Amino acid sequence: MPQRINPSILSADFANLEAELGRIASADLVHVDVMDNHFVPNLTIGRPVVARLQEVSPIPLDVHLMIDDADRWAPGYAETGAYSVTFHAEAAADPVGLARRIRGIGSRAGIALKPGTDAEPYLELLGEFDQVLVMTVEPGFGGQSFMPETMPKLARLADARARHGLDVWLQVDGGITTETIGRAAEAGADTFVAGSAVFGAGVPAEAIEALREAASR
Ligand code: DX5
Ligand code: ZN
Predict the structure, then answer these.
(1) Counting atoms of ligand 1 from 1, which one is nearest the CA of 146?
(2) Distance between CA 117 and CA 78 in Å, rounded?
(3) Is 62 assigned a catalytic role?
(4) What is d(CA 113, CA 134) in angstroms, rounded to the nearest whole number?
(5) Which residues have a Cβ under 8 Å from the Cβ of 163 and sit 6 or more positions away?
(6) pLDDT tens per residue across span 89-117
(7) d(Cα 59, Cα 106) in Å, to the nearest integer?
(8) 217 pLDDT higher than 90
């Protein structure tokens, strides 16, 4: 199964985003964390910056919305041309309807589950999504420690995916390093977000390769 490494620009230099993209040319997608200071206690960037990134990035954008009222705002991110748009389960009144709208606009649709959010309601709905993001830290900040207690949930999702014969991507986000990525891969993840492990490294391209290797070990 192919594995993807998605560096998170949350740990990049926000004053030089275009140059930072050049340092991760070997990445599969670039993970863009949108926070509204309501859904999470942190504030990052919004649609204008994402739209501009979309114009300059040679790498497809994987947009992770940590915002309230996703039903209202998520389609606008899909309209920027983002490769994928992921919203949190709690932030949407109608997650399946919203995923269909995102797909209709032409992006892949993702649903994100916080560490305390049960996967159960979505196991029989996996076909409605292109990816499920399993948060491996509490959303809001980079540089936190991986929560191994989220792995059984990931394994249940991987199980349901196999049972239904789907190719929905299972993404992990938070605390992913060369030390932790193997556990997530073993539990069924195929798409790995890493912020500090990539941009905190001297040479981000080498960090990406080290993560790839550790994931397939
Ligand atoms: C956290 C964000 C992550 C963050 C991960 O809420 O969703 O994407 O950038 O950062 P690290 O890899 O440093 O845990
Ligand atoms: Zn994220």
Answers:
(1) 14
(2) 24
(3) no
(4) 5
(5) none
(6) 999 999 999 999 999 999 999 999 999 99
(7) 17
(8) no
| Amino acid making up residue 66 | M
Ligand number with the minimum distance to the CA of 144 = 1
ipTM > 0.90 for the complex: yes
pLDDT at position 73: 98
Ligand 1 centroid distance, CA of 198 (Å)? 11
pLDDT of residue 70: 98
Instruction: List CB contacts of 207: < 8 A, sequence separation 6 or more.
Output: 194, 197, 198, 201
Q: Which residue has the tokens 């995916």?
A: 161
pLDDT of residue 1: 76
Residue ranges per domain, the chain? 4-215
Average pLDDT of the segment spanning 44-49: 98
4-215 under CATH 3.20.20.70, yes or no: yes
CA-nearest of 213, 166, 158, 209 to 186 is 158
With a Cβ cut-off of 6 Å, ligand 1 is lined by 8, 10-11, 31, 33, 64, 137, 139-144, 173-176, 193-197
Nearest residue to 176 via CA among 205, 212, 129: 212
**pTM of the predicted model, to two decimals?**
0.98
The β-bridge relationship of strands 169-173 and 191-194 is: parallel
Note if 173 is an active site residue: yes
Token reading at 54: 């979309």
Q: In this structure, are residues 129 and 103 in contact, taking their beta carbons and an 8 Å threshold?
A: no
